[in-house]
Amino acid sequence: MSAVGRLPRGLPERLPDGERLLWQGAPDWRVLARRAFHLRGLAIYFGVIVAYGFGSAALSDTPLAGVAWAAKLAGLALVPIGFLAAYAWAVGRVTVYSITNRRVVIQLGLTLPMTINLPFAKIEAASLKGRANGFGDISLLLNAGDKVAYLVLWPHARPWRLARPEPMLRAVPDAGRVGQLLARALAASADMPVPAVSDAQPGHVAAGSKEPVAA
């Protein structure tokens, strides 16, 4: 908790009596850049184009001019790559994910900071998709009548779930442990047995408050 007179980090207000903070974290900006913004794919795309440009220049009648053109293209390619990397870093800096014994809270927004409160009563199920090195994404399926606009959530939204957007805790470190913690909190809130959640491995794991949902 923060000092007296200051709001707790990542929360819109002090927690009421009986509510406890169980976990707080933020997306790893490097993983976020690769998974949400597809930075690696973009870099490979531009790399192939630049390599082709240098290869063509070496075989042309005016190699110096060709090399200069390819070098200029490489410089231009760094602009979108650098922008996306910087944006991912900024998103990682301002985002705070919080799990209490009653809700999930997502603090987000660069130009317009906002806080999204997701009480457990509004969460139908949660699923974990593990990534390499212990990172993972935890998506939250909301009740049919409870919706948060996809554009408001992005990039903290499960991809392509436009009709029924699912908030997502993205690029979470130690995702298996966090998923288990959330599963226990959801189960305790619903007064249900705790569902089993295995280690975060690619393509694995679903944990729900009412029923599991495949990742």
Describe, in plain words, how this protein is organized in 3D.
The protein is an alpha+beta fold and 215 residues long. It has 2 domains: 58 residues; 111 residues, no CATH class. It contains 5 helices and 8 strands. The strands form 2 sheets. Strands 1-2-3-4 form a 4-stranded antiparallel sheet. The longest helix has 32 residues.
Sheet/helix structural class: alpha+beta
Give the biggest sheet: 4 strands, antiparallel
Helical content stands at 25-40%
Number of domains: 2
Strand order of the largest sheet: 1-2-3-4
Residue-averaged pLDDT: 82
Uncertain runs with pLDDT below 50, 5 residues or more?
A: 196-215
Strand/helix succession? EHHHEEEEEHEHE
Shape call: elongated
CA gyration radius, whole angstroms: 21 Å
Output the number of helix runs: 5
Quick structural summary:
This protein has helices at residues 29-35, 39-59, 63-94, 150-153, 175-190, and strands spanning 21-25, 96-100, 103-108, 114-119, 123-130, 136-142, 168-172, 206-207.
What are the SSEs and their pairings?
Elements: E1 21-25, H1 29-35, H2 39-59, H3 63-94, E2 96-100, E3 103-108, E4 114-119, E5 123-130, E6 136-142, H4 150-153, E7 168-172, H5 175-190, E8 206-207
Antiparallel strand pairs: 1-2, 2-3, 3-4, 5-6, 5-8, 6-7
Helix pairs in contact: 1-3, 2-3
